[in-house]
Design a protein that fits this description.
3 domains, single chain, 6-stranded antiparallel sheet, 10 helices, alpha+beta, 4-stranded antiparallel sheet, 306 residues
């Protein structure tokens, strides 16, 4: 059975195992950095939102012998587990006024997302693009969101500038920024996962001579999801640069955070570029890469440059 037949078969089996009051839909979704996935959603008749369960990984399991019936059963189990986590009225997405206070933005790579950007409102900044989404619900590490497409603007009768203005106002409030020394963050991670190796790395960093002056700082948001957008928050970088009395290098470690580094003679930009690109190739998931470039923040001008 080829991939297309697999998708159709899973859909039919889910329909067979479901109550009659549901609508089962296959969705082809363009994710970040050009990654394309196929998902299935089981929409209850009295609901207007449903979790999408991605099927790509299940196809690999099917090729190794897992049955269509088993895959469909897993899809329905995940649907039942998550269907009641969020409830929205039928008018939620119809009226812009009902959701304008939860419009926020995130940063993605411009060149790697041209197909997606042709279908969504966006603003280009350097080699990045600001895109917009509804923050329906958020928890640490997990967010329920809905990306805003061009068709939404037509439906709402608003302009891209209106969307942009609302997102600029909302995002720093709903997704508060935090700047944490790298060593402190690693301490927290080591404590959460009880990983002795992580604790050892922390000890090695803290014992390094000069680490107080040349420390790495992690900039992200309260949910640690799409936190790289914090680099655009009004006067955030300016205030931090004044505190440490230095201009900044900004290393885009992923779409979820960036690393701030005091711009001092110890660091060579070409070396930093090589480091970012190596980390992106070896240590960051393809759909979470933000950029292979290193940015600079100048206190005098108050701007970010390449």
């Amino acid at each position: 059975m080829n991939y297309k037949s697999f998708l159709d078969s899973v859909k039919k089996e889910v329909e067979l195992q479901s109550d009659k009051n549901v609508n089962v839909m296959l969705n082809h979704i363009i994710k970040n950095n050009g990654r394309e996935l196929d998902g299935i959603a089981v929409m209850e008749k009295d609901s207007h939102i449903a979790p999408t369960i991605y099927l790509n990984g299940y196809f690999e399991q099917y090729k190794k012998g897992r049955s269509i019936k088993s895959v469909a059963g897993e899809v329905l189990r995940l649907h039942r587990q998550n269907r009641d986590s969020i409830r929205l009225s039928s008018e939620y997405f119809d009226n812009y006024e009902s959701l304008r206070n939860v419009i926020v933005y995130k940063l993605i790579n411009y060149e790697k997302n041209k197909k997606l950007l042709s279908d969504v409102p966006h603003k280009r900044i350097l080699d990045l693009a600001v895109v917009f989404y509804c923050l329906i619900d958020q928890k640490k590490g997990v967010s329920a969101t809905a990306l805003i497409h061009n068709e939404h603007l037509k439906k709402w009768g608003i302009t891209e500038d209106t969307l942009y203005d609302d997102a600029l106002k909302n995002t720093p409030v709903l997704l508060k920024s935090s700047i944490t020394p790298m060593s402190s963050l690693l301490h927290e991670i080591a404590k959460e996962c009880k990983d002795e190796r992580a604790a050892k790395v922390v000890d090695e960093i803290e014992s390094d001579e000069g680490i107080g002056e040349e420390a790495l700082y992690v900039l992200t948001n309260s949910s640690r999801v799409n936190g790289a957008a914090c680099m655009l928050y009004d006067n955030l970088l300016g205030s931090f640069a004044e505190v440490i009395h230095a201009d900044l290098y900004i290393l885009p470690s992923s779409i979820h955070e960036v690393i701030l580094l005091p711009k001092i003679n110890t660091f060579n930009k070409s070396d930093l570029l090589n480091m970012v690109r190596e980390v992106n190739e070896q240590g960051v998931a393809e759909d979470e890469v933000l950029s292979d470039n290193v940015y600079e923040y100048n206190r005098k001008d108050g701007v970010i440059t390449l």
